[in-house]
Task: structure prediction
Amino acid sequence: MNQFSQSEVNLHITILGWLHLAVGTLIGIYAIWVLLQEATPSYFRLQGSA
Result:
């Protein structure tokens, strides 16, 4: 019984860990995307006008 609840806690920690990793990755990709757009505005303006 005690071992079962311990494994349940470990499962929750694992799920939270994966969730944080996924959210962190998405935020990182979004931040890089925004920085790329800021760094190359002329390229994106040419894309838009073409």
Q: What stands out?
A: The chain has a mean pLDDT of 84. The radius of gyration is 21 Å. Helices lie at 2-39, 41-49.
